[in-house]
Amino acid sequence: MAATLTNPLRIGLRQERVIPPQCLIIFGASGDLTHRKLIPALFELFLQRRLPSEFAVLGCARRPWSDEVFRQTMAQRLQPIIAPNPQAWEFFSQGLFYEPVDLQQPGHLERLGQRLEQVDRLRATRGARTFYLSVSPAFYGSGARALAGAGLLADPQRSRLVIEKPFGTDYASAQQLNRVVKSSAQENQIFRIDHYLCKETVQNIMVLRFANSIFEPLWNRNHISSVQITAAETVGVEQRASYYEQSGALKDMVQNHLTQMLALTTMEPPGRFEPEPIRNEKAKVLQAARLANPEQPWTCCVRGQYGSGGTAERPLVSYRNEPGVNPNSTTETYVAVKLLIDNWRWQGVPFYLRTGKHMAKRLSEVALTFRDAPVHLFDAATGGVSSNNQFVIRIQPDEGATFRFEVKAPGSGMRSRPIAMDFSYLDSFGEPSDEGYVRLLADAMLGDPTLFTRSDEVEAAWRLYTPILEGLKQSPEKFPVHSYEAGTWGPAESDELLSRDGLLWRRP
Ligand SMILES: NC(=O)c1ccc[n+]([C@@H]2O[C@H](COP(=O)([O-])OP(=O)(O)OC[C@H]3O[C@@H](n4cnc5c(N)ncnc54)[C@H](OP(=O)(O)O)[C@@H]3O)[C@@H](O)[C@H]2O)c1
After folding, report:
1. pLDDT single digits (tens) 452-491
2. Pick the CATH number of 197-368+454-499 from 3.40.50.300, 3.30.360.10, 3.30.70.3270, 3.90.550.10
3. What's the 313 CA to ligand 1 centre distance in angstroms?
């Protein structure tokens, strides 16, 4: 039975690679991520005709489900997605299987091996396997070791291991986890997820920089005076309090997603557009990055926590009053840091990274501010001097890019005024980009590691923030958490981080 495409036009616009025959084994198949992201992404790949017919998903978790219960549970949870394509789901779900597995029971993995051989025969998946650890991070190391112990990662050509975030909780734990997974599988078998890298606009940073001759000559300390990287959310902690209390904004967002955006924005051009040259350049620039003042990290890091806020119609409770949060919690829901990069391209250019929950607007962007014009010949129509040129890459929502420059304001005088030249993905390509997990799963199953973080990148990113994490343990009083009203742009102290350098945060 042929699948019906959600939008047949999409296929024509794209040049998609076809995923080779294989079985995807999801540990944590009864968990949240599986039905919220993984199975919907696989179904989307199926609708896009990118899954081969020799394909199977083997769900694994401790609960004693059967294949049928797994299929029915997914069908119930994915109802809104399935409803327009019931026949396609019928066909797709025949490739879903389930095996009860406790990752802590070695005997279960022996049994898993036998079940996999059975699935291989049934679905002609040829022994090619992608193991996806969508379980608690506490199982990443032991899960990898258990799979290796059962001989399931022995063939580097036909077995892969996908590891969810977070990868470690600090530099030492990331190093330790790397040691364990690298003793279980080769680096080219390991796919560490950072789902920000799967956003079309994040990948577009590389295309903008390395496919256009106009940007690269300007992309350095001679022309760029500062860079702001923002990931602002309007939601609060929602149902994730128990995780978030242990994590906080620095570990949850900055060490991984914002730092990956920093790496793509600042890396040198790779020699070839291939996974290893790209990852080499990202690792190199992260190794050259540092906090603006690592000896006194509290001077280049501002932490905040949302208080109550919102409107009479939609009141927002403070973080400390959220269910599951310690009423005296000092976990940050907002953080801003100032970084520098000690290399020829970026010496002296400040990079300001910020992220927060319950902020004024949901947006992620990279904003590069160019140096001031050497002489101001025209009065700005907006009063005062003309503004600096700015190039903003909008990661989400409203994916695209904006270039801001001065033009003549209408009228008889010669006054300048800033205007924005805009590129929008939706307007240009007529379709929103794929959900990140569609790309992630496809790439992992294709064996393409470009958008996954390598061990040295992960470690360099953790090392960058070690002075803050260590300082927080040793002298927490130096890193106070400042309250900010929910629904605003964060604490006033964060503005001081920039005003000391004569700058302002963008308020898009
Ligand atoms: N949810 C998200 O949006 C999201 C986003 C980013 C990253 N992540 C990461 O993705 C992972 C999964 O998140 P989640 O939200 O899906 O977690 P979850 O809902 O708590 O699910 C955990 C899964 O692990 C299974 N499990 C627990 N102990 C096990 C064991 N010993 N052996 C085998 N399976 C076991 C559970 O099923 P049983 O109880 O039946 O064993 C369940 O299926 C986490 O590492 C998280 O950090 C999640």
Report:
1. 999 999 999 999 999 999 999 999 999 999 999 999 999 9
2. 3.30.360.10
3. 35
